[in-house]
């Protein structure tokens, strides 16, 4: 019998961690990513890796990469300020605060008291590519799969195909793998919309933006409109730490500006089609009545790095999903969740570590796939619920009951 060959559809965080986990265990794989390059589009910026996510990542990376990961993370600071957008006055914290400034009830499952890592998403993806370049193909637009007597075949829009033993859909919330495997599954629209972006951490920003808002993770509130921000500072140069394999990242402020769809005065189609420049203009238009210092965050933003996003979520209930010996899903492709819980990336990494471990220990089979599904839902479902609770506090999410289902 030939050794297993895993086909990974999607080169986001979950797919790349899975690739590293399989490589560490000597399991053959090929990863296919639709984007032409790792930096073809805005990837989002700061993510926090903690708990099951940090444990899973360390399990999947070899020691050299894990050490490099730790050396290239940004600083992790406690909470900064909670401020009124109109007059700059202090407001109550958005979440109850526990010891050391940690949010109560908003920590990824299994985090315990372990260290949290603050990561730049683009730099992190570049790190996860190291050593696996020959096994990753960019510019591969996946269309569908076909189960064959010898395994499974993935097909792509350029007319090419790839044969393997097992296919893993890590192709995001609009997953084409999910649409074929679980056509009945639907996500829901939270009716929340955000623009995310970055503003260089310059002397001009320090001079104009209220200093208390740049000391740590802060929130600027105007009713159900919210600007969430965090200064991202890198104590070490990634290029030096990696001997030139990684590009350094300049310090910046990561921010998310959001609220209910009605606040932006745009139809769904208009909002989704915004360019980076148009998304940046929307932040300025919507905050014209804000305190001038707060508006400087938007006035000084890098407009090429701004992007709109509709917030959708899987439902907090386990769908009917018969296990397959040929194909499975992980990350946003099966349990997309709202970003207000800080759990999406951690769950995707935990999924990847779990699947790599099970493939190594149990081999590829229907039983292994079923075990993966059972164990994954144990932490994914509470994370979906916790993220929804955060959205209720931040943007007035009305809950899953009656929420509009989303088709892709």
Automatic annotation (TrEMBL):
It holds the Pfam family FAD_binding_3. Residues 327-359 form the FAD-binding domain. Keywords: FAD, Flavoprotein, Monooxygenase, Oxidoreductase. SUPFAM superfamilies: FAD/NAD(P)-binding domain. This is FAD-binding domain-containing protein. Its cofactor is FAD. InterPro entries: FAD-bd (IPR002938), FAD/NAD-bd_sf (IPR036188). The keyword Ligase does not apply. GO terms for molecular function: FAD binding; monooxygenase activity.
């Amino acid at each position: 019998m030939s050794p297993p060959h895993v086909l990974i559809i999607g080169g986001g965080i979950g797919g790349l961690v899975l690739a590293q986990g399989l490589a560490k265990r000597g399991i053959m794989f090929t990863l296919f990513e639709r984007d032409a390059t790792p930096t073809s589009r805005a990837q989002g910026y700061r993510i926090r890796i903690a708990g099951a996510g940090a444990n899973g990542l360390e399990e999947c990376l070899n020691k050299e990469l894990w050490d490099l990961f730790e050396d290239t993370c940004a600083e992790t600071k406690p909470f900064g300020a909670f401020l009124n957008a109109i007059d700059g006055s202090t407001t109550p914290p958005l979440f109850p605060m526990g010891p050391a400034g940690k949010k109560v009830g908003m920590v990824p499952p299994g985090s315990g008291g372990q260290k949290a890592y603050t990561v730049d998403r683009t730099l992190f993806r570049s790190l996860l590519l190291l050593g696996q370049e020959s096994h990753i193909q960019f510019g591969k637009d996946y269309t569908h799969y076909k189960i064959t007597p010898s395994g499974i075949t993935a097909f792509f829009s350029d007319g090419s195909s790839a044969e393997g033993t097992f296919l893993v859909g890590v192709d995001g919330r609009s997953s084409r793998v999910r649409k074929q495997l679980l056509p009945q599954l639907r996500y829901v629209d939270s009716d929340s919309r955000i623009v995310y972006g970055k503003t260089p951490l310059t002397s001009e920003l320090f001079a104009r933006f209220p200093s208390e808002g740049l000391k740590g993770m802060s929130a600027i509130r105007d009713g159900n409109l919210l600007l969430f921000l965090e200064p991202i500072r890198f104590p070490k140069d990634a290029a030096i730490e990696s001997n030139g394999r990684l590009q350094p990242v300049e310090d910046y402020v990561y921010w998310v500006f959001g609220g209910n769809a009605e606040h932006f005065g745009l139809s769904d189609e208009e909002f989704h089609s915004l360019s980076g420049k148009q998304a940046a203009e929307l932040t300025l238009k919507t905050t014209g009545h804000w305190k001038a210092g707060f508006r400087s965050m938007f006035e000084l933003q890098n407009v090429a790095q701004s992007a709109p996003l509709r917030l959708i979520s899987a439902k907090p209930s386990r769908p009917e999903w018969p296990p397959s010996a040929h194909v499975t899903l992980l990350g946003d492709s099966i349990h997309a969740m709202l970003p207000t819980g800080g759990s999406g990336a951690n769950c995707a990494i935990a999924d990847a570590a779990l699947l790599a471990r099970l493939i190594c220990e149990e081999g590829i089979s229907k039983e292994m796939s079923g075990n993966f599904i059972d164990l994954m839902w144990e932490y994914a479902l509470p994370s979906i619920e916790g993220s929804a609770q955060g959205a209720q506090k931040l943007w007035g999410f009305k809950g899953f009951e009656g929420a509009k289902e989303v088709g892709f």
